[in-house]
Amino acid sequence: MEFSLKNEQQQLLSKMATNDGHGENSPYFDGWKAYDSDPYHPTRNPNGVIQMGLAENQLCFDLIEEWVLNNPEASICTAEGANKFMEVAIYQDYHGLPEFRNAVARFMEKVRGDRVKFDPNRIVMSGGATGAHETLAFCLADPEDAFLVPTPYYPGFDRDLRWRTGMQLLPIVCRSSNDFKVTKESMEAAYQKAQEANIRVKGFLLNNPSNPLGTVLDRETLIDIVTFINDKNIHLICDEIYSATVFSQPEFISISEIIEHDVQCNRDLIHLVYSLSKDLGFPGFRVGILYSYNDAVVSCARKMSSFGLVSTQTQHLIASMLSDEAFMDKIISTSSERLAARHGLFTRGLAQVGIGTLKSSAGLYFWMDLRRLLRESTFEAEMELWRIIIHEVKLNVSPGLSFHCSEPGWFRVCFANMDDESVRVALRRIHKFVLVQGKATEPTTPKSRCGSSKLQLSLSFRRLDERVMGSHMMSPHSPMASPLVRAT
Amino acid sequence: MEMLSKKATCKSHGQDSSYFLGWQEYEKNPFNEDRNPLGIIQMGLAENQLSFDLLESWLARNPDATMFGSNGGSIFKELALFQDYHGLQTFKTELVEFMAEIRRNKVRFDPQKLVLTAGATSANETLMFCLAEPGEAFLIPTPYYPGFDRDLKWRTGVKIVPIHCSSLNGFRITKAALDEAYDEALKLNLRVKGVFITNPSNPLGTTMNQDEFNHVISFAVSKNIHIVSDEIYAGTVFDSSKFTSIIEAIMDRNLEKTDIWSRIHVVSSLSKDLGLPGFRIGMIYSNNETLIAAATKMSSFGLVSSQTQYLLSKLLGDKKFTRHYIQENQRRLKKRQQVLVSGLQSYGIPCLKSNAGLFCWVDMRNLLSSNAFEAEMELWKKILYEVGLNISPGSSCHCTEPGWFRVCFANMSQETLNLSIHRLQAFVTSNGDGNYQNQKLSTRISRRNSLVVS
């Protein structure tokens, strides 16, 4: 009965509506379910699951709220802003409010240290970066065409670029042995593989800074990538959604800088995706941006933006906020400091028990190395370990396989979506878990390469305690140890 | 290798249509009472600007609609972080109550069966993605909103087969027209997945009557296909008792417990009723759980800004306000429509009898030089460039008979509407009835005279 009912639904609705292209039937949603059914709260539910699977930036709301309070005209609902209500509410031109486009272009320039200029007329709105990616896929590829994408990558790309477009994503496999860098060889290999399988490659999808790695691409790699796509005459989509989450060296280099200063290339191939969801912490406002150097793509994408325009109420607010340049400078630098502090707190805390993390300088998360905690080096073992972390350690972290990582044992851990107390609790739980596993090792320095071997010493709880309390294990480049580090 | 996709290089976005070209001409030379009094008056934009004063005064009385309550508590952060595609529950609850209120509470809606989308544009496209494979077809009565060619077909690959409606019976949907459309689809080897109706109709401004419901519903039942009802203009009905939602129509025929119930899908938006097109608030309502689940996930590509959801939850939560707004808005629209209809009538231009919408469907057949679409285009250009009015030619709405035009009346001030009627009057008087060519000389003289008179 149930089967025929489902079958009937499948006949009634399209394949797209009933297939798994949305990606939500992945087993990794168990982590979310565990969190949803038992969410941590410091007083109401101190033993609940702490959400460390959500890449959100909650660190600067105090500053932003203060700005909103002091700038009532930015809202069309206040006495000060209400005179704009009607003109904003009826404006549905898909070009977007000029002041919005100008402010966004200027902000993007600022984030790149004014090393490049952006033309507001090339700014196209979209329903978040989610919408921008899908729109680009519709513009650049026909069904069955493929884009190459370095692994590990953000799982949402599978849905955003493939679900309704029929496009394919082919991996460029990156490995821990060289810190997951993209190499010329790996790009060529992926391209050749596609050729052999008779799949037409239309482009390359890059996420810089990387999600989930948190690394920024170096100039040489970026030049190699641009050279590669230019030679093959394929498009490059560069998702720079984390561009203002950089908190230490090395600095972020945008693809726009590479094409303007470092290498000649056909600019019709270059397209950027951006959003305010990560840098500013506004995922609810759905401010997605598509920027293309290709006029035909701008024109087409703009027509398609009708399917996901930014609410003019929000455009108005964002235009006001982003054009307050002094404030935006403050946000960028404060966010950077706070992210650095958080990142350092966690990575040092993990290092105390010999848990390594990939050295990173950006993002709202870090890439944690739990390979030595695996029963064996398989994805089944990764899944087992992950379930233990969810259900026993009570942390929702994201396992590497969900990011298409080629090696088991890596986990993405988000750190910017919680308060300081939750951070302390999370660290305590991790320490306890590692000790219980009997896997605590000599503390590693934060700069250790993931390939280094570790001493298998078991430490008494008190010794670990001393180490953590007296922690001064800083590399010259990491920020001051937060006075908040307490592992007890 | 072709650098861009087929979708990017084809013309399915429909923007080469006269509907959009007229807008472009308007943009180049827009009318402004003070700065450009001879410019083109925009009568091709179905917007509702008549009741903003009501919204503005509500805002002035309700400072809590900002993200900072007067008690100092801020929900800015919560809203900024809220990206759940299920939408803000308070907003959805208020929204379904507002939708019910517009339908005289003859229908109650369940917020769990509602999907929020970035405008009805996104809702309609999403429904096509969910209900049809590329190459399958929906039947749509003509004339229809030109945007459907983009929204329903462009990226989805779905086809539209027209259900031809005729002025002989006021463009009502007939059984014969439905059958003919279905046969046409079969001839074209297209699998029909549903009927797509707009009720109240754009561009006609009429509400569906019981005969039409009978035809459409029996047809959909017998063919086992979907009915999508775009009810975006539901709140623009001059008299609420004259509007019947598809859901009410199904219930009236005692079909809720049958198969068809899960094949009925309603689209709406706050762009027309409340006049807030910039806020991108659209919705899909359906009793089909699988559809709702899929459409909800797809809404990720076009969610409604949480800031906007919050504002509207406050606005719509004020029931005294919404009741008053609905009534007063309807009253103003009716009055405006009457100004246009009587103004046109007074010099022999009839309009289709309508009871809803932000526009009239105007019969200018007797101004055509011949009964052909070329003549309609000629007339349209004259009206655009010489008279200075951007109105929408029936051909852009896929009307099968030349000579009909959609003229909007709610997106301008009373004075501007009067001026546009006056301009048209001058044009009509100078052109007269019948064959324009034969009367060229005399019309030039009479135009001069009429200008002097006015």
UniProtKB/TrEMBL annotation, chain A:
EC number: 4.4.1.14
Ranges where the Aminotransferase class I/classII large domain occurs: 50-430
Metabolic or biological pathway: Alkene biosynthesis; ethylene biosynthesis via S-adenosyl-L-methionine; ethylene from S-adenosyl-L-methionine: step 1/2
CDD domains: AAT_like
Required cofactor names: pyridoxal 5'-phosphate
Record's catalysed reaction(s): S-adenosyl-L-methionine = 1-aminocyclopropane-1-carboxylate + S-methyl-5'-thioadenosine + H(+)
InterPro entries according to UniProt: Aminotransferase_I/II_large, Ethylene_sulfur-biosynth, NHTrfase_class1_PyrdxlP-BS, PyrdxlP-dep_Trfase, PyrdxlP-dep_Trfase_major, PyrdxlP-dep_Trfase_small
Record bears the keyword Transferase: no
Claim: Cell division is one of the keywords in the record: no
Protein name: 1-aminocyclopropane-1-carboxylate synthase
Gene: LOC113703119
Automatic annotation (TrEMBL), chain B:
UniProt cross-references to InterPro entries, sorted A to Z: Aminotransferase_I/II_large (IPR004839), Ethylene_sulfur-biosynth (IPR050478), NHTrfase_class1_PyrdxlP-BS (IPR004838), PyrdxlP-dep_Trfase (IPR015424), PyrdxlP-dep_Trfase_major (IPR015421), PyrdxlP-dep_Trfase_small (IPR015422)
Swiss-Prot/TrEMBL cofactor(s): pyridoxal 5'-phosphate
Annotated catalysed reactions: S-adenosyl-L-methionine = 1-aminocyclopropane-1-carboxylate + S-methyl-5'-thioadenosine + H(+)
Transmembrane portions of the chain: none
GO molecular function terms noted in the UniProt entry: 1-aminocyclopropane-1-carboxylate synthase activity; pyridoxal phosphate binding; transaminase activity
An individual GO BP term: ethylene biosynthetic process
Pathway per the UniProt entry: Alkene biosynthesis; ethylene biosynthesis via S-adenosyl-L-methionine; ethylene from S-adenosyl-L-methionine: step 1/2
Pfam families (UniProt xref): Aminotran_1_2 (PF00155)
Domain of life, source organism: Eukaryota
UniProt EC number: 4.4.1.14
Residues forming coiled coils: none
CDD domains in the cross-refs: AAT_like
Domain Aminotransferase class I/classII large, residue spans: 41-423
Keyword annotations from UniProtKB, A to Z: Ethylene biosynthesis, Fruit ripening, Lyase, Pyridoxal phosphate, S-adenosyl-L-methionine
Family label: Belongs to the class-I pyridoxal-phosphate-dependent aminotransferase family.
Record protein name field: 1-aminocyclopropane-1-carboxylate synthase
Gene: LOC113711176
